[in-house]
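Milestone M4 deliverable, item 7.
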Amino acid sequence: MTPRFDLIGVATADMAASLAFYRRLGLDIPADADDEPHVEAALPGGLRIAWDTEATIRSFDPGFDPGPRGGGRFGLAFLCDSPTEVDELYAELTDAGYEGHKAPWDAFWGQRYAVVGDPDGNGVDLFARLP
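Output delivered:
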């Protein structure tokens, strides 16, 4: 059997805050999951994303060290339908108090791009193809 990529794992300091952020990006996460120590959600194409609280990870890995907040240790990118949607979603998230890392711009590789921080400081890219 050949291993296959199946899951993206996110360690979080605040489960409810992290899930609220990713719900705003359209992920289908059960509403009653905010108090759980481990949460999973299905993504298109069969891939999954999972969140574990730092305390949960330490319960099976006492040496776990999440490192500095927002260390850029993984990247997630959300495809938007249009450049306008990138701008609107970035504004919605930053207006809601999430940290803007890079305001929307037209990238040289042909995409409208922006970066916003999730509650744990991880950069999350928003992008759409330019016409």
